[in-house]
User: Which sequence fits this backbone?
């Protein structure tokens, strides 16, 4: 069926989809505040033609007069045949979608002077009408395409432009198929495809954040920067160990094991691509560029490179620069000619996921002193001050993901994610509601913070025995301090079937983790020549940052002591940064410049680190609340 | 064994080679006026060490005192063990070797303002000492190489530099093999190889001129621009027809025939590469770049592209731009990472061999009006005037290569290459001496010119019968005019076994050929708005130009009527131009710019061409000598 939108007509074949879905697939940026649930009534569109019946949501939000004038809700109405859209709920600032989607729509994420980053992607696409050859116009077919690209679209590619043999082999046929109407996908120095007809609206890219544990993929409309679909999966390499060191050991274990690891990541990426195109209903042939971010070890493994030198002194990897290749050569199942860009690494294990985080948070463009903290399986820190950028990594993550914590678990259903002690009552919130089955990172941080505040845990991290507790602590709390074969513990919840407790050893794990982070930013501040109290803003990347109680994190000394409103959670900043580098060549270039601009600090080599670490394991003594 | 030259020491293992040969392989440019035959005595070198006995040539050219001081002739003396070269016969202007070698050392070939073309090649090579990683220096291996390239060699590559996965896989091993001493071969945006040790002197490239009939290869030292070896072979595609149209017909005959033609050229190029490295005694691994020139049809067939559109109206090919690829992907058997550049085409059949000819002849930089004429299987013409350049092609070649001429042959042993009528005597020169067996192009031109001069052939090209000849023509000549079943003929030579004759039909063939050429430059002059009499210089590319008698060619109207000393033979200008583009990136870029600057003129489409052609078939009437 045909849909006329404004002055254009589109052929679509997605029977049953809502108008909003169809328009998104065609590349329109719609404003859907309630995300298409029909609850806000904001997505009013004037539509005529063969349409589905009015829904209850539409009757609620549209006046009789509006209904009479052909208004519907785009998220509700389903075109059944040819129709014509006269007005639709367009987004005014399309460009901001890059950031709004996926990262929290926090003002801190909005680029101030950063509008140049919202410019053209590396791969552009233009529909042109190539003139037919004649005795008066004998230009070669490729020149004919390039000249027309210049005259019709104003795009002058490099003199030494690259066109593959495969492309040249089908060039004439592609031009003749629709009588000279073709769409050219190109980077500055390379023609990626010449497709028959006008396919300019089908212009997609994929971005990936390859984490040690999780791989996340994003399908992006390169015309608008809008994210069309996301998909994620567990990194199949976990079969060789949850942590990087186990995988590096496996990689060195035999001749072919580096290739095994490479194919595992590639197969995950290829499956995500399938899932993304199927979710968004776009063709695989219209994906022209993939941008990949990951920690140094992951990007090395993705390329099948040696990683043993990363794990042994002096911890030196192979590849700091960005890596560009044709997707098919690298093993990504994309169309012939599609490009792939692996973002550059910073140093040691601090890789392109951190650079992507810097891009997403605009850390390098902020005034004052700011700290970016990405807590995943590893912890990466970047300190920015006066135009300088220092980065380090700490082995801080596992405790926050539930590892080495007796009843620890990831932030999934059944996890205690928040704990408050109110008088003698212990109140907590369980993810998904119901009875708790364990405790996740944010719950751990807040539980310890509360126990510190009331004096059940002392500044050294010791869980006091019932006899040592001060008098003002009532019996309701005292009875929760118990001992079992695992040592002293504080019971957060118990009934006849279940107990969820915090053990002395869990507090020690948290001390190690928060000590490592705290020592990390202390060393960075010292190197930078600023005091930790000078830090103006703390940017928290990673899911943990979205859920942790900021006050509690400050109280236990895991974050610098800044105002709560100066602590900004970013969500998956690495994914957001990778999507930005996909949607904008300027952002891609900025990532490449940042790799050389950020100085990597090896904590193991810092003379003061061990002292800082020992000191930082102690909790701050001023815990007044 | 070791050879010390100046302040450097080289390890060589070419026992039995002369010092001159060894030094050439090491990249030194030696001045060997007699080309190493020992006859000029100019290559005096002061050498000490284990050397061969004095030869007779050395005793002839060296004084007792010189012998006592350690002087030898570099082309005669053979190092037998370690030795030390204190002085050697170096070439003062190394850069000019590019042109001197292969093309005639004609002053017209020397670039006037063209010194920028003698700059660095696309691929450079630098030996560097990469510092070892340490806890104080944890840069990634690739960054370590790139940084050192910048600090030690002053070479800053692009931020978005390309390094292949294959290179990265062996990078660490390459660096460690010689304790950090590596040699990097690179283009501006790409690292081609990182080799252990100092191999900066082993830096070679190959250039090819792919002709319809012959393929010529050149091995060039990219450090100096010196040509180290040449090799040539017949284009294996001749099996599918001597001319382009037969091959295009074959290419369209079945599904796989384009691939057959592609593999045939590739196999010829690969065999030439083998021959070149073996002749020069260099390693195949040290060839980093290949530059290829050829006519449009040959470059299309080399890439396996469709050529049928070149042979049918409106005669439009696919690829005008230069084509760059990795050699191994294109099918050239060079080292992994080596680059190949196919020079750009101009229009129709006028291809990159003509562009290479323009580069070699500096046609685009000449003052006044100049004509470049390349006579091979086809004839290509380029007219340059006031900064404008026009090109066309004519089906002019075959007669000059012996085709369609009754006793025609190529310019090989036994061919009459020159004819003079002296009174009643017919004098001629036979290639290789001895009895003639046929006549080649230059002989044909001169024979007709002489017959015109004495009046045996009239201006319409008619061979007069014995009864029609004027009285002053003596009986010795008259009796040579005979008839047989093939028609009227002029006997150039006869004895009891052999006759070599020029037939009326041969003169008609020549008239067609010279008419096409003459009409070609007439049309170009008209389009340019100049008169043919304004042409200041005629540059003759191709072997034919080296042998044709200039005066005779002017007399029959095949060349514009300019002074003989303004007619400059260039030899294989296409090969020279390809070598220049190999030795200098500036020349490569100039070729790319020229492809867009030169306007292609389709003669078949020119309203005046047929008239010009008919007129030009007549010989000039003023044949006074």
Assistant:
């Amino acid at each position: 069926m045909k849909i006329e939108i404004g002055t254009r007509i589109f052929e679509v074949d997605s029977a049953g989809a809502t108008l909003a879905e169809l328009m998104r697939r065609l590349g329109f940026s719609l404003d859907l505040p309630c995300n298409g649930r029909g609850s806000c009534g904001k997505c009013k569109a004037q539509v005529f033609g063969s349409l589905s019946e009015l829904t209850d949501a539409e009757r609620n939000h549209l006046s009789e007069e509006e209904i009479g004038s052909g208004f519907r809700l785009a998220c509700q109405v389903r075109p059944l045949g040819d129709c014509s859209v006269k007005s639709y709920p367009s987004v005014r600032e399309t460009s901001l979608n890059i950031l709004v989607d996926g990262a929290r729509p926090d003002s801190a994420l909005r680029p101030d002077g950063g509008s140049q980053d919202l410019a053209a992607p590396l791969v552009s696409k233009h529909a042109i009408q190539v003139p037919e050859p004649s005795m008066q116009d004998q230009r070669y077919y490729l020149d004919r395409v390039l000249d027309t690209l210049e005259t019709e679209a104003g795009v002058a590619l490099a003199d030494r432009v690259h066109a593959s043999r495969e492309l040249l082999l089908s060039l004439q046929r592609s031009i003749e198929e629709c009588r000279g109407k073709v769409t050219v996908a190109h980077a500055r120095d390379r023609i990626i495809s010449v497709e028959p007809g006008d396919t300019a609206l089908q212009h997609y890219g994929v971005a990936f954040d390859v984490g040690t544990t999780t791989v996340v993929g994003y399908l992006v409309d390169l015309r608008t920067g809008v994210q069309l679909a996301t998909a994620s999966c567990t990194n199949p390499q976990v079969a060789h160990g949850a942590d990087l060191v186990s995988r590096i050991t496996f990689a060195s274990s035999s001749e072919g094991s580096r290739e095994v690891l490479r194919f595992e990541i590639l197969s995950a990426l290829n499956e995500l691509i399938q899932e993304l195109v199927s979710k968004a209903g776009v063709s695989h042939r219209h994906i022209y560029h993939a941008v990949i971010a990951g920690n140094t070890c992951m990007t090395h493994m993705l390329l099948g490179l040696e990683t043993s030198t990363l794990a042994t002194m002096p911890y030196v990897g192979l590849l700091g620069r960005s890596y560009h290749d044709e997707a098919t050569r690298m093993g990504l199942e994309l169309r012939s000619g599609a490009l792939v860009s692996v973002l550059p690494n910073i140093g040691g294990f601090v890789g392109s996921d951190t650079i992507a985080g810097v891009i997403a948070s605009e850390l390098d463009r902020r005034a004052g002193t700011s700290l970016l903290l990405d807590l995943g399986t590893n912890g990466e820190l970047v300190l920015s001050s006066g135009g300088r950028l220092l980065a380090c990594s700490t082995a801080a993550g596992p405790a926050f993901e539930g590892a080495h914590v007796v009843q620890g678990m990831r932030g999934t259903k059944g996890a205690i994610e928040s704990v408050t002690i109110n008088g003698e009552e212990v109140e907590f919130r369980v993810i998904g509601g119901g009875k708790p089955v364990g405790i996740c990172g944010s719950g751990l941080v807040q539980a310890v913070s509360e126990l510190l505040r009331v004096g059940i845990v002392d500044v050294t991290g010791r869980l006091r025995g019932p006899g040592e507790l001060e008098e003002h602590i009532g019996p309701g709390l005292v009875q929760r301090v118990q001992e079992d074969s695992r040592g002293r513990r504080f019971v957060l919840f118990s009934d006849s079937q279940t107990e969820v407790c915090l053990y002395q050893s869990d507090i020690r794990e948290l001390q190690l983790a928060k000590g490592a982070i705290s020592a990390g930013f202390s060393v960075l501040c010292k190197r930078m020549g600023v005091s930790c109290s000078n830090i103006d803003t703390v940017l928290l990347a990673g899911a943990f940052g979205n859920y942790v109680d900021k006050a509690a994190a400050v109280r236990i000394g895991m974050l610098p002591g800044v105002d709560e409103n100066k602590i900004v959670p970013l969500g998956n900043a690495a994914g957001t940064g990778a999507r930005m580098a996909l949607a904008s060549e300027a952002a891609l270039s900025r990532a490449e410049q940042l790799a050389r601009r950020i100085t990597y600090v090896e904590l193991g080599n810092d003379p003061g680190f061990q002292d800082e670490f020992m000191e930082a394991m102690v909790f701050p003594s001023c815990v007044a609340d």
